[in-house]
Amino acid sequence: MNSRRDRNARAALFDGIEEGGIRASSSYSSHEIDEQENDRAMDGLQDRVNLLKRLSGDIHEEVESHNLMLDRMGNDMDASRGVLSGTMDKFKMVFETKSSRRMFSLVVSFVVIFLVIYYLTR
C-alpha cells in the first residue's frame, strides 16, 4: 500500500515528462503567451531604467556640487586658521612685557564695560 502511494506520487511529479523532452501540457499553450503583454512589460522596464539613469545622474551632480562646496569650505578654514594663528602670535607678544599686560587688561575691561552697558540698554 505504501509502495502504491510512492508510485502515484512519482507519477504526479513526473507527469508530462517523456523520454527526450517535456510534453506540452494541455493547460499551457503557445497561444497564451501574448506578445503585447511582453512589449508592455519591456516598455515598463525601459521606463524604470531611464528613471534610474536620470536619478543616478542627478545624484552624481549633487555629489559633485557638495564636493566643490566642501573644498571651498576647507580652503576658507585654512585661511581663517592662518589669521587666527597670527592673532595668537600678537597676543603672545602682548603678554611678554608687563606694561603691555596692563594695556591688555585695560582693553579687556573696556570691552566688558561696553558689553554690560549694551545689554542693559537693550
TrEMBL record:
UniProt superkingdom: Eukaryota
Keywords of this entry: Coiled coil, Endoplasmic reticulum, Golgi apparatus, Membrane, Protein transport, Transmembrane, Transmembrane helix, Transport
Bilayer-crossing regions: 103-121
Membrane topology designation: Single-pass type IV membrane protein
SMART domains in UniProt: t_SNARE
Protein's UniProt keywords contain Coiled coil: yes
Any GO BP annotation: protein transport
Span of domain T-SNARE coiled-coil homology: 32-94
Transmembrane helix among keywords: yes
Function of the protein: Required for vesicular transport from the ER to the Golgi complex. Functions as a SNARE associated with ER-derived vesicles.
Similarity section: Belongs to the BET1 family.
PANTHER family, per the entry: GOLGI SNARE BET1-RELATED
Protein name (record): Bet1-like SNARE 1-1
Organism in which the protein naturally occurs: Sesamum alatum
